[in-house]
Amino acid sequence: QLQLVESGGGLVQAGGSLRLSCVASGHTFAAYAVGWFRQAPGKEHEFVAAIDENTYYSDFAKGRFTISRDNTQNSVYLQMNNLEPADTAVYSCAAVLPYYESRYYFSDDSYDYYGQGTQVTVSS
């Protein structure tokens, strides 16, 4: 069983930055692909970015967000720059053993383990 805990959310002004962390315990995290998702009030769960041997981004994340991992720390990070009020949401990470086709990473139904999420609020 893999446990995921997110941290790093908070309140930031538009144009600011945050770095979210997803720390895993219970298994060898390096073997897993990890995705970040977000959900704003009244909206659908939305893919943000994922990482296996490669990285994958939603259109809104490209150029502003960077996903990375440190397997020595059992952690995956989401560096978010130039934040906008529209980025306000609960951000959560999820993990799954890697797929051959990257398209599966874009749906939260494709993951086996989920964190509880961390709130990101961007003020204008």
Give the DSSP E fraction (strand runs of 2 or more residues): over 45%
**Treating each run of at least 4 consecutive H or I residues as one helix, how many helices?**
0
Q: What Rg do the Cα atoms give?
A: 13 Å
Encode the helix/strand succession as letters. EEEEEEEEEEE
How much helix, percentage-wise, in residues?
A: under 10%
Task: Give the strand tally.
Answer: 11
Distance between the termini: 40 Å
Mean pLDDT figure: 96
Uncertain segments are none
The quaternary state of the protein chains shown equals single chain
Kindly list the characteristics that best describe this protein:
7-stranded mixed beta sheet; mainly beta; 124 residues; 4-stranded antiparallel beta sheet; single chain
Brief digest:
The chain is mainly β and 124 residues long.
Account of the protein in words:
With 124 residues, the chain is mainly beta. It has no helices and 11 strands. Strands 2, 4, 5, 6, 9, 10 and 11 form a 7-stranded mixed β-sheet that branches. The chain has a 4-stranded antiparallel β-sheet with strand order 1-3-8-7, with no helix packed on it. Strand 7 and strand 8 (75-80) form a beta hairpin. The protein starts with a strand and ends with a strand. The mean pLDDT is 96.
